Every structure is written in structure tokens, then in C-alpha cells.
Give the backbone structure.
Amino acid sequence: MKMEIETCLPDRQARMIRMVWISSDMISFHLSFYLYLTCMMLKKYLPYIFLVAAALFLWYIKKNQRGAAPEKPGTEDRIIVPAVLPKNEDQNKTGEFNRAGSLVFSKHARCRMDCRHIDESEVREILEKGEINYSRVEESDQGRSYPLEGITHDQQHVRIVFAPKKDSLVVVTVIDLDKEWACDCK
């Protein structure tokens, strides 16, 4: 076929076609040789490449995971450890926590209630029937908070944190102990 094209074309055009064919053959040869060398090098260095990639991936995950340590000293959040009262302390069991009073829902508690599908009737139900988790009672400058746990009429296992204030009870937060709910409360 090459000869047929060359015979019907002028000499200059035939030479151009020959050069294109030769250059395309050389390009394909160089490309295949390059790929061959690359494959040989990959066979030799592939395990090392995977190890480096895995190390970089693990470093990235560790660096960006939730709750990662702060990078600069002095920028870390202060951690306040609450005073935990023992279960056998009599003053906690004898009614220092008064379940009577009107309920005041904090903005955070309302948001968590919406996210976790818990309504006011369930909060009142846990206030009446729930048990105080004494290991999670917290003391702060604002006063004491009492986590009450129980099962609601919707069969949700919840913890609701109450903080007594004067004549009312502030609902601080609402937690579903069995299920993680997607929530963007701040």
C-alpha cells in the first residue's frame, strides 16, 4: 500500500509521507520502551510507593480527625473536669434534686430535642420516672446539673440533663443513648 501511494504522488509528498510513517513508528517504539521501563521500575518500587502513600494517608487522617490535638501550644481549649459525686452520698439521694417546678428549655436542649425526635411529654416523663445517674452529676459555677435516664413511651433510651434554678428546672440537653442522630446544634 505504501508503494501505491508513493507512485501516484509527486516525489516531495511521498518523502513527507515516509517521514511521517517513520516518525510515528519511532514514537510508538519510544513510547513502548518508556512504558516497559516504567513497568520494570514500578515492579521494583511499587511496595515502597504503597508504604509511603499509606503513611501519608494515615498521617492525614490522624491530623484531621475530630478531636485532634491543637497544633500550637496555648491554643488548646481548657478542659474543666466536673466534680463527680459518689452514689452513696446521702445528700444527693435525699431530695436535693427537686423534680417539681416549671420547665425552662434551653436553646441547645430545644435543638437537640428536634434532632433526636424527643418531645416535651417525653422530657416530663423522664423527669417524673427517670433515675438520676449520680456518676454524671456535675458541679459548676452556675450550680449543679442532674442527668436523669430512662425509657420514654416511644421506647427511646434517653439521658436528660436538668439544672435547678430558683423555682424552675432548666433542661440543659437531651441525649439519645442508643442512637447517634445527625445534628448541627452548636
